[in-house]
Amino acid sequence: MPTVRDARAISTFLEAIAAENGAARNTLLAYGRDLNGAADWLTDYGTVLSDADATGIESYLVALDTEGLARATRARKLSALKQFFRFAYDEGWRTDNPTLRIDGPGRAARLPGTLTEAEVAALLDVARSHGADPATRARNACLFELLYATGLRVSELVSLPDAAVRGAPQMLMVRGKGGKDRLVPLSDPARTALAIWLTHRDKADDLARRSGKPASKFLFPARGVKGHMTRERFFGLVKDIAARAGLDPTRVSPHVLRHAFATHLLAGGADLRVIQMLLGHADLSSTEIYTHVLDDRLRALVMEHHPLARDQPDPD
């Protein structure tokens, strides 16, 4: 267990980044777990998180590597420590930042899994027909059409407010990471699916009002504590529909559909910076991982248009 001093320091840090950066709840929970885990290890090591020096932190990172943790996981844990100690230094709790010269393992630049256009079409077909009643089928179709049309993060999709889609919008206002808003256009199939779902959703709201219950403020309401469909519920739905579509469920997730949105746009000629804006990436480097889809297209362009790539006439 972290010491009382460390627990207070971690709590203060989390409150600060929540207030100043608008960090999402899941982000705060992840930071808290990583920092508490480091504090536990450092206590056994013979120090406390608040007083740890570079040697202690490097020993902790070596221990994580020895445990066989993935490089991305170790990089995330170091990132949490770097932010914590930068905050401690800025607040005057410490006169130094012990993580300043510690380099992390980095994150592997692996290509994201994706789906072909035909595979996405199969998913959409099954989503339209999957469900015990017309309302459920309309909801499922709307979820999948919106995800593929916009590339939203799953948390952004399931928590969409009902007010954001009223008035048959051409564009959707989305609140993403850090409380940053962005506009994403809606395709005609997505708008059609949305309109059909809203007719069923409005009927359910009318019934709720007649029973004295308040109408939900979410586009995809649910009975749980959050008031909307959970990420876990949608994740399971995606796996179910993937299996029914004849796809390997291990290959398909909401995040893979987000990748498919970006990959298919780029393959169709969309500008990388436009895709960055649509995905809500703060840094273009996060979007550049999709450039693998350009290889064949660029190679074909060079072979077709470069003068030295064309067949040369035989010399006389």
Entry summary:
With 316 residues, this protein is mainly alpha-helical. It is built from 13 helices and two strands.
Task: Give an overview in words.
The chain is mainly α and 316 residues long. It folds into two domains: 4-90, DNA polymerase, domain 1 (Orthogonal Bundle), CATH 1.10.150; 117-298, hpI Integrase, Chain A, CATH 1.10.443.10. The chain is 58% helix and 3% strand. The model has no long low-confidence stretch (mean pLDDT 85).
Helical fraction: 55-70%
Query: Which structural category fits the helices and strands?
Result: mainly alpha
Q: What is the second-level CATH architecture of the largest domain?
A: Orthogonal Bundle
Low-confidence stretches: none
Number of helices: 13
Q: What is the H/E order?
A: HHHHHHHEEHHHHHH
Distance between the termini: 85 Å
What is the residue-mean pLDDT, rounded to a whole number?
A: 85
Tell me the count of domains. Answer: 2
Q: Outline, from the CA principal axes?
A: globular
Strand content: under 5%
Which oligomerization state do the chains in this entry correspond to? single chain
Strand and helix layout:
Layout: H1 4-21, H2 25-45, H3 54-66, H4 71-90, H5 117-129, H6 134-150, H7 154-158, E1 171-175, E2 181-185, H8 188-210, H9 231-244, H10 254-267, H11 272-279, H12 284-287, H13 294-305
Helix pairs in contact: 1-2, 2-4, 5-6, 6-8, 6-10
Which key terms come to mind for this protein?
316 residues; mainly alpha; DNA polymerase, domain 1; hpI Integrase, Chain A; 2 domains; two-stranded antiparallel ribbon; globular
